[in-house]
Amino acid sequence: MKKIHTPFVLAFLISLGFVAILISCRPYIDTPIINNEKLNCPLNITGGCFDQWVKLNDGYDNIWMEPAGGYLRSLNYLTTLPTSAGGPGPLTLDSTRDSYSGPFAALLITDTFSPQHDVVLIPGLIGTDSLDIPNATIILGKRYTSRPVSLKGYYKYIPVGGDSALVSVMLSKYNSALHKRDTVGWVKQLYKTPVTTYTLINLPITYQSTAIPDSLTLLICSSAGVRFNDLMHCKGQVGSKMWIDEIEFIMP
Question: 189-208 pLDDT, tens per residue?
Answer without folding.
Answer: 999 999 999 999 999 999 99
